[in-house]
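Journal club side-thread
Mid-discussion, someone asked how the predicted structure for our own chain would compare to the paper's figures. Pasting it here so we can look after the session.
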Amino acid sequence: MTQQLIKPQSRLLRLSGTAGMVGPALFAVVFILQNVVRTDDDAIAEPVSALSIGEYGWVQRLNFFVFGVLLLVFAAALHRGVASSRLGWVGPTLLSVAGAGLFVATTFSLARDETGAIYDPSFHQVGGMMFFGGTALGLVALSRRLARDPQWRNLSRYCLGAGIASIAGGVVMNGLAIPDDAPLHGGAGLIQRIIVLAFIFPALITLGHRLRSLSA
């Protein structure tokens, strides 16, 4: 009876680990391909969310939605797949906030004015703050829980470093790139892509791979 109960749970965790790997990887592939084939976007100066504008903006909005679903599934599985600890719920909860932020980004898109400049007519920036804040702080909080689980302990410092680097990148992004008169404004899109491709996404994929391996 015990074995029959464990197998479905292991299978679910394995699928959830796959979701943790596929979510960020698929999201990155889709927005990179759009940067290659679309001519109405500047990947160096404009954020990934600029791809949600225009005739083919639905592709990026769908990309946000799919990633949001997979990230929520993964966050819930991490809570079950890592040994519990005091305040151990904080990390998975913050990752869930990040997933919810992707739904906000799906619902409220950026827009362009008559000069072609990008602006936020509603709550898209709120979704962005939820995603970047949720993932960066979530990795930092999760690192403490990983340190208490022998099967995850060797990933603790990596998650902590990725989270801190993402926080530092967010400070640079918001202080030196996003404002119109900021010195790095012309490279805002590049800075954002570096944050997700170098720090956030590799950490999520690594955690997903570990969850998948442990549930095998």
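Post-session note: Residues 10-214 form one domain.
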